[in-house]
Amino acid sequence: MITAIVLIQAAAESIPEAAQAIADIEGVTEVYSCAGDVDLIAKVRVAAHEDLADLIPAKISKVPGVLGTDTHIAFRSYSRADTDAAFSIGVDGV
């Protein structure tokens, strides 16, 4: 599974509607509105790199109010939950 983070510039008056429309697209797992250099951040999960080409320019970029996107493909995931799970392996048997 391929995970990508899509930074999205949106027209200020369209942010809530654009965010919901993007969240409704298959392959998009989460959408956040945020402060800073971008207006929305979407987390995308697809089976193959080719699917990103179908999803981002063909769907996300076409949502009314979306002005531009910047996509970052994730190589590896790190989280506290992953670390805690790795260190708890075999603890139940002690």
TrEMBL record:
Transmembrane segments: none annotated. Residues 6-76 form the Transcription regulator AsnC/Lrp ligand binding domain. It comes from the Bacteria. It holds the Pfam family AsnC_trans_reg. This is AsnC family protein. It comes from Amycolatopsis xylanica.
